[in-house]
Prior knowledge:
Blueprint: E1 14-18, H1 23-34, E2 38-43, H2 46-59, E3 67-71, H3 80-91, E4 99-102, H4 118-142, E5 150-154, H5 167-186, E6 191-197, E7 200-201, H6 210-222, E8 230-231, H7 232-244, E9 252-255
Parallel strand pairs: 1-2, 1-4, 2-3, 4-5, 5-6, 6-9, 7-8
Helix pairs in contact: 1-7, 3-4, 4-5
Amino acid sequence: MPDQVKYNKLQGKQILIIGGSSGIGYAVAEASLEASATVTISSSNPSRVDKAVSTLKSAYPSAKDRVSGHACNLGDESSLDSNIETLLKETTKNGKLDHIVYTAGDSLASMKLDTIDMAKVKQAGMVRFFGPLFVGKHASKYLNAGPASSYTITTGAVSEKPIPDWSVVGSYATGLQGMTRQLALDLKPVRVNLVSPGAVATELWQGIPEERRQGLYKSFADKMTTGVVGKAEDVAESYVYLMKDYNVSGSMVSTNGGHLLL
């Protein structure tokens, strides 16, 4: 008789992580594999997906048959809807999903308010806002029905504490809070939740010169009660929690090192 599985609720589950080739999404993939789930990661760059899958297989050799990847471009308005549905179809050829996690993002897009135009505004929201909305459009067809299944979206601390020159991205980030609550109604009984990370040391910052990047990390840490910038493997725990707690829906978990208190 097998041991009862009561708390490791991810064992044997099928999880799609959109944005899973790097950063927080990659850490969620690691955590999911360690919990004995089957994981598919996706991002816009095929070579990056292949590299991430290879790295995960090397790091978790016993899980090499439980990890795969599919590229999906979320940055093109004309193909966004069809690309998402293709990804979901490809991911569910052998059965429906139990969880979808959306951590995809693109380059940090702060911009002076007097420099914006409609093209810039739309592009800034393509991956951050319209992507998760269109995943929600198709999710019910590809997720197992019931509260054991979930869709978890990602916003940012700018949705809770405004930052100068972030009016565009901040508006999308705040809008994701409303989107989450609405999708939780429209997709019920599947659960929909949101994670709001503060500053996290990920590849997103790699384009900034090292000296300036370390200076930014220090400035962030000085404004956190923890005194340290978040690590992806710690923030990933918020996503694991939201997948495992069948009683939470329409809610947001904020993981920000105490930044909102200072």
